[in-house]
From TrEMBL:
Gene3D superfamilies: Phosphoglycerate mutase-like. One of its GO terms (molecular function) is phosphatase activity. SUPFAM superfamilies: Phosphoglycerate mutase-like. This is Lysosomal acid phosphatase. The chain crosses the membrane at residues 141-163. The keyword Transmembrane applies. Belongs to the histidine acid phosphatase family. Keywords: Membrane, Transmembrane, Transmembrane helix.
């Protein structure tokens, strides 16, 4: 049974385990998060909380896009949330939390190259490459990837035929 679980884990994570796959699956969500954070910085008001309902197929690539995945399957009822805090000097900081069990408080995660309380400007800069602004941009990225893959396949076929 342990082998089957490990194969399932590896198969599921293979769908999201690099930055390009993570960006394709979570880039629109990352963009929405960053737009809301940017608005909070400018307006200094807005909603106190924004909730999204999702499942492991969204949370797993989001963890990879954030650079904080632990290569484990996301359990049912897991939750990722970002808290934006304003210090006394009005600077904004972002903190990422991951709750993957009800028997432990949420884990405070840290973006690579950032402190646990990450300045919002650094948070946005670090996540900028994972951002996809709209569905049209997503389609363009997907089409470009498909064309590149087709070109690689065509080159391999030509090389194979040349060897004969």
């Amino acid at each position: 049974m342990r082998i089957i679980r490990e194969l399932r884990r590896r198969g599921r994570l293979e769908e999201y385990n690099n930055l390009q796959k993570a960006k394709l699956r979570s880039g629109l969500l990352v963009d929405d998060w960053l737009k809301r954070i940017e608005a909070a910085d400018i307006e200094k008001k807005g909603p106190k909380a924004v909730f999204y309902s999702s499942h492991d197929g969204t949370l797993t690539p989001l963890l990879y896009a954030l650079g904080v995945s632990n290569d484990l399957l996301v359990p049912p009822a897991a939750c990722i949330f970002v808290e934006i805090v304003r210090d006394p000097s009005s600077d904004l900081y972002a903190q990422i939390f991951y709750r993957n069990t009800s028997s432990h408080d949420p884990w405070l995660l840290r973006l690579p190259n950032c402190s646990a309380e990450c300045p919002v400007a650094d948070f946005i800069t670090q996540l900028q490459p994972m951002r996809i602004g709209n569905e049209k941009a997503l389609r363009q990225i997907c089409n470009a990837s498909s064309i590149t893959n087709l070109m690689v396949i065509a080159l391999l076929i030509v090389a194979f035929l040349a060897l004969k």
